[in-house]
Amino acid sequence: MYRIFEAVLPLVLLAAAASYGQSLADAARDNRQKKDKSAPAAKKVVTTDDISTEAKPDPPKPYKTIGTYGFTPEMWKRAIEGKKKWIAFLEAEKVKFEAQPKLDMKQVALDPQVRKQWEEQGIQRQFASEVPEEKKKLLEMREEARKAGMPSEVWAEQ
User: Fold this and answer.
1) How far is residue 134's CA from residue 155's CA, in Å, rounded to a whole number?
2) For labelling alongside 124, which of 6, 53, 80, 97 has CA 20 to 30 A away?
3) How do residues 95-142 score in pLDDT, each as one tens digit?
4) What is the extent of the structural domain holding 106?
5) Is residue 146 part of a domain?
6) Quick check: is 85 in a domain?
7) What are the percentages of helix, strand and coil residues in the chain, rounded to 5?
C-alpha cells in the first residue's frame, strides 16, 4: 500500500498544480493588458496628407566624364591616350578569345587545368564584349574635349 501511495501521490499533486495554474496564453494576455495600460499614447501619426506633393527638382546632371572639368590640354591628351591603350588591350584579348578552341564542358568539370582555361576564356569574353562600349566612350571623350575648347591636336583622331 505504501508503495502505491508513493507512486500515486506525486502524480495527483502534479495534476492538481497543473489544473490550478494559469495557462501560458492567459499569462501572455494578462501581460499584454498591463503593458497596454502603461504605454503612453502616440503624439501624432504622420499620414500622406502631411507629406508635400510638390514635385522635387531633378538633381544636377553630372559632367559626362567625371573629373574632366578644368582639364588642361595635356591632361586631355593623356586621358584620350589611356582610353586608346585600354581599347587596344581589349581588342587583343578579343583576338585571343576568338582564336582559342571551344572547350569540352565534361573536361571543364573534371580537369582543373581545363577549368582554369575556361575561366580565362570567360574573362576574355567579358573584355571582348566591352570593346564597342569603350569605343563609344572614346568618341564621347574626344567630343567633350572639343567642346571644352581644346586644340585639335588633343581631340582629333591621329
Assistant:
1) 16
2) 80
3) 888 888 888 888 888 888 988 888 888 888 888 898 999 999 999 989
4) 73-150
5) yes
6) yes
7) 70, 0, 30
Task: Please report which confidence band the pLDDT of residue 16 belongs to, taking 50, 70 and 90 as the band edges.
Answer: low
- Structural domain count, the chain: 1
| Residue among 84, 93, 95 at smallest CA distance from 134 | 84
Which pLDDT band holds residue 48 (cuts at 50, 70, 90)?
low
Crossing angle (nearest 10°) for helices 73-99 and 112-147 = 150
pLDDT band at 1, cuts 50/70/90? low
Closest of 126, 116, 121 to residue 102, by C-alpha: 121
The helix (H) or strand (E) run that includes residue 130 is: helix 112-147
Amino acid at 138: L
The residues, any chain, with a CB within 8 Å of residue 155's CB and separated by 6 or more, are: 76, 80, 142, 143, 145, 146
Is the Cβ–Cβ distance between 111 and 53 less than 8 Å? no
| Other Cβ atoms within 10 Å of 118 Cβ, number | 16
The answer to whether residue 64 is domain-embedded is no
Does any domain span residue 81? yes
Q: 25 in the Ramachandran plot: left (φ > 0), alpha (ψ -120 to 50) or beta?
A: alpha
| Confidence check: pLDDT of 59 > 60 | no
